[in-house]
Amino acid sequence: AKSSGRNTYQFYARRMNEQVTERLLLESHLRQALENNELELVYQPQFAIKSRRLVGCEALLRWNHPEHGRIPPDRFIPVAEDTGLIVGIGRWVLNEACRQLARWRDSGLPCIPVAVNVSARQLARHDFIEDVEHALRENGLEGSLLELEVTESTLMEDPDMAAGQLARIKEMGVRLSVDDFGTGYSSLAYLKRFAPDTIKIDRSFVCDLPDDSEDAAIVSAIIHLAEALGMDTLAEGVETEAQRQFLGSLRCQLLQGYLMGRPQSAQEMGDLLASRKTV
Length: 279
Ligand code: C2E
Ligand code: CA
Ligand code: CA
Ligand code: CA
Known about the structure:
This is PAS domain S-box-containing protein/diguanylate cyclase (GGDEF)-like protein. GO terms for molecular function: cyclic-guanylate-specific phosphodiesterase activity. Helices cover 52% and strands 19% of the residues. It is globular, with a radius of gyration of 20 Å. It has helices at residues 2-33, 73-83, 85-106, 120-123, 128-138, 152-157, 159-171, 188-194, 203-206, 213-228, 241-249, 266-275; strands at 39-48, 54-65, 69-71, 114-117, 146-151, 175-181, 198-201, 232-235, 254-255. The chain binds ligand C2E and calcium ion (3 copies).
């Protein structure tokens, strides 16, 4: 038993080592990703549930590594956050999303707001406000064409800091949405304080609709709360017609998910804008 215990330990030690090595490798590659132009944004369409019109899109980061292929954001964003690399990467995302909006506009396409994900480390920086101002000004965009997506946990990490930063962001007309709503430590008092334009209902509450009665109760409560506070609700991860109908019956306003459209290249999103598609 003793020797098997030691073997188990060695096994875990080796596994740990592999994980550490993998992470270090990822980190060193990530440092070069920006310079080497390996980052790309894809855009997922957002639709109004009633009119079925395309009303916005979310910019989602992709890393195309020359040897390892496409590395999903869930694997590299945590590393970028831990190492602080997210600050430079996040600035690039903000600028690139605004540049892309300007490209669509300049080729005569209708303007819809683009939503950009913002990490806690970015929001906490003093120069974050200037970064946002710069990205808008450089591309001749009104603030209302930009939406920042901030998770509950980011807001709750340092609520005073977040409230200060977001108040300045709002003065520019930039929109705010609370991402992954319901998964973190949500406080209703803070919802009032941050006064987001939109609440994004997390996919985990949407995926088992309409059959799961608990999820149905939670989603219904979120929508009623948002309605009473004058905020819009967007349901994430909508994959089935039954989910869409159910969310419509609860008066959810906005939908995003594979049923309506996957994250797609800037070119494909441009085609979608040109077709002024309804779903
Ligand atoms: P998120 O902000 O909650 O983004 C939504 C994720 O759900 C995206 O995954 C999207 O592709 C996926 N999704 C959308 N519709 C559906 C659906 O109908 N079904 C299913 N199963 N999934 C759906 P993605 O692109 O892999 O991004 C994962 C996470 O990485 C994001 O979650 C966000 O937290 C983070 N992320 C992505 N881009 C950025 C970025 O530029 N900056 C920061 N800080 N985080 C980012
Ligand atoms: Ca998001
Ligand atoms: Ca989300
Ligand atoms: Ca998420």
